Structure formats: C-alpha cells, structure tokens
Amino acid sequence: MTVPPVAPEVVPAVLDALPPRLRKRIDGALDRAREWVVEVVGDAASARIDADTVLSWTLHSGVLIGADELVCSCLLAPKCLHRGIAVAVASVAEVQPRAADVVELEDDVVVGEKRGERAAAEVLWGACAEILRVGVTGSGAVVRSELLRAVHGARLVGLHRAAAGGVRIATGLAAAKAGASSFDRETLADDLTEVMLVCHDLRSGIGDPVALRGTARREYQPVGALRLYGLCTEAVLTSSGYAGVVTHVVAADRTLWTVPSVYPGGVERIVIAADGPVAMGETGLSHRQLGRSGLVLSGATAAPDRRLGAGRAVRAVAAAGATWDEQPVAGLWDEPLADQLTRALHTGQDLVFLSGVVSGATTTALRLRLDTGDIDLLGATDAARDNLRLLGERPGLPLRVVARLVPDRPATAVALAAAGELAVTGHVDLTIDRLQRSHLPPGAPAAALPAPAVEPPPSGLLATVVDRVVLGGRPVAALPSTTRDAATLARAGLTATAALLDTLATTARTRARDPFGRAIPDPTDAFPTAWLTAALHTREFTRAAVRLSWLPPEQGAN
To answer: Which domain of life is it from (predicted)?
Structure first.
C-alpha cells in the first residue's frame, strides 16, 4: 500500500470535514489502508476499498494538492472515514503555495489578510508544544493535522525554514506511528528544537529575520567563473528514498563546493551515479573521475550551501586536477584542528581534514592517532567499513583523511576518503572504492583493538529526559526519577544542568485542576519553554564535550 503524497494543507482540510465521532476513530482505522491496492495512471490514482466503494485522487505532479480532489464513492462522502485514512497515512510533500495564496509582508504586517509572521510562528509553536505535552504516543492523526495546518500557515507568510522543519516533524510522527525503521527519536527531538527555536525568535523579534524566514526552495545565485580541483566523491543513501553521490571540489582560495547526483532510488544508484556523467557542460567526466581531476566553470551558479548548479548558462570544461599533496588541495590540511572543529560544530561546513598514523581497528572503527590523541573513524557504507577494516591491519601506516565530524560522539568522525602509502593512484573514495590487501604495504595483519570503555557522562541524564519527553510527553518529565537525576547532576558539580532539569520537572508537575481533581489542559508556555531550554543546553553541552574530546586540555579550553 502506497497512497499518493499530499500537500500539508490537505490533511487538516479533509479531517475538518469529518464529524467528531469519525475523527476519534481515525487512529484506530489506519491499518485498513494496508489492504488497499492503489493504481496510478498519469495524474489519476484510485483504490477499490470494497465492492461498492472506490477512492479516487486527482494529482498534480504526483501530489494531491486539494481536498476536493480526493473523492470517495461511498454514501458518507465527503465526510467519510476513507478520505480521512487516505490523508492520515500519506507522506507529506514539499509543495510550494500557489502565488495567489501567498501573503505579502510589510514591516511584519500582512497586506490583505492582516496576518503576520509572528502570528504564524505562534500557531506553529503551539502545535509543537502540543506534541511535547502528549508525546509521540499521544500524537495521533488530529495532532499531526494541526501541525500541518500550522505548517501551511507558516509557508503562506514566507516562514519557509520553520515550515520545512514542521514537515520533517510530521514525517517523523508518521514514521513512529507506522513503526518504521526510519524513525529516530533523537532526530525528531532535534527537529522540534530547531522549529521551536525559530518560532521563539520570530515571536520575540530576536535574530536576523532573513535567516529565520529561510527560502522557499534552494536558490542558485551567480558566482562567476571558478577553477576547481577534485577532492573526493562520497556515496549518498537517505532514509527518504534517495541515493547517488556527491563530489567535493576545491577552489583556488580553498573554498569547498559540491557537485551532486542524487535521485530517487536505492543503494544500486550509488555505483550508477559514481560512474555516470557530471551534469555540467560537456566535460565528459564521471563523478568518480571529477574527484581526481578538475573543472573550469563560467557562468557558475550555486546555492547558499555551496552546491553548484547545472543550469543551461553554465559552461564547464575538464581541466587538470591536483593531488592531496599539491595546492590548493593540500592547504585544507593546514587549518588548525581546533579551528576545524569550531567550524564543523557551528556551521554547515562539517568536513575535517586529518593527518595521522593508523593505530589499528576495533570491531566498528579504524583508530587513527593524531598529534592530539586517538580518534575513531567510522564507515558509512559496506565498502567504507571493509576498507577501514583493511587499513586497520597496518598499524603505523601514515594517512591523510577527509572525514565528517560526528557532533554527538566524542573523538569520532565518518571517513569519506583517505590517501597514504597505498598501491593506488591518488586517494581512495572509501564509500565507493574497494581496497584489496594487495594495495596495502607489506606486513602481517594486526589483531583488532579493544573498543574503549565509554561511561556516559552525568550530563546525559538531562539529554535522556529531553528525548523521552518526545516519546512519552509531559508525564515523563514529572516522574520521581527526574528529581533524583537532578540531584545526581548537582552532586557532580553540574548545577546549571541540574537546575534546568529541575525546572523541566517542576513545570511538568504544575497542573491546574478542576473541582473534581481532574487535570485541566495547560495552554501556557512554561513546560514547552523549559523543554526547549533544556534541549538547547544539552546540544551545546554535547558540542563542547565533543570538541574537548578531540583536543588536549590546553587547546580544548580555548
């Protein structure tokens, strides 16, 4: 069963049409959709529910964008459970609002509808706060519908960053309800933190309004002529059904750019994309070749994240590359590690460039000895894990590595490419190439190293409660164990962290009650604000701890 995806505003529109008794039944009826067989022909889709009932979709580029374009033949339609189930189980598509619906802003006052950014941020904040109050376990179709209504409102007034985050939250809630392996509690907590922080700043007038609003889609702007040198090619495989490669290239000023080739598909697309053509000009280069050669671009365009565009005006010519020992590529390893960590932890540029000597391999990682101490390198694909395991058989082997920092694990990074005294030309793209023992220098395989004994830091007590609230809602923070955890933090000297956990617990327990002793719904911001503050503290505390784990004490304190 795969029903067509829907625009965010369709879900609340369909559910609003249901009588209250049917809205209450939605969550218990979602499993019915597993028996549906949906047939898609062009921009039309249909599913026969039973002998007398057919559900029909009219699609636009494969997406349902209007509630009236979902039609059921049953007698209760359009106020029927079939339509409600169809939108409740559907994935949410990133559809931009029609031009006629978009509200224009002037000094935070909406022309025409009189609805501003702050009002939209208030609604989206409220939807996220409700998720925190009831948790994933209590966030059924109605709660998700209210979130998507808020997403649509945010998008109409130009709050694209918040709206995109809201779609990710809705997707996470749906994955959790479906028991999908793609659901990750920490990712959902991160998405809630991001959206609520943006909404908080918009409501409070804090920060750069342009950055807080974001953009409707990836905007490619002219960046002129570029002389680029290939660095490496990385495999991409997402949980949302996309796969391919991204090639990293370096400009003469050491600026990093990326050239992507990522499309819908599975792991099989990685090799196809790696050996497929670079969609820029008539270079004749594959992505695998571009990672070892160069380009000259004229009329180049790029997104804010330095992703290069492939528009018609872009002209590209293949050129000579540079090895990792030649400039400008070699200069990437000249940046002090402390500066690299600061950049990787606090900006979107999360690659680090490491020089070290192989210490060996654990069961899960290659251990590399830097001047500052040992770090663990993980593999993101089967090829990368096999390659790292082989490299670990040669302790003492000098290596240069391109890696992506893991921001929540001490002294850990994901290795993308490596170069050293290997019988290969240039570097090895660890996620797509395959090393053989014949490529290694002579020597006997070394035994595996024991994995380090890692004890969770006391600060993890706050992080655990923050994540558990996402699953179980407000009652989790009110448990007696939270008070004990706060006392443990205080004894460890983490008094600020303890105070945040205590505040979270106090706001969770403080509930008004009616004359019969029943808890009254709490519409205040006390609990969601306490959760957001705790989540932000946890994030920054973790980043600081990760930075310290990479550096000796005298450098880590700077």
So the answer is: Bacteria
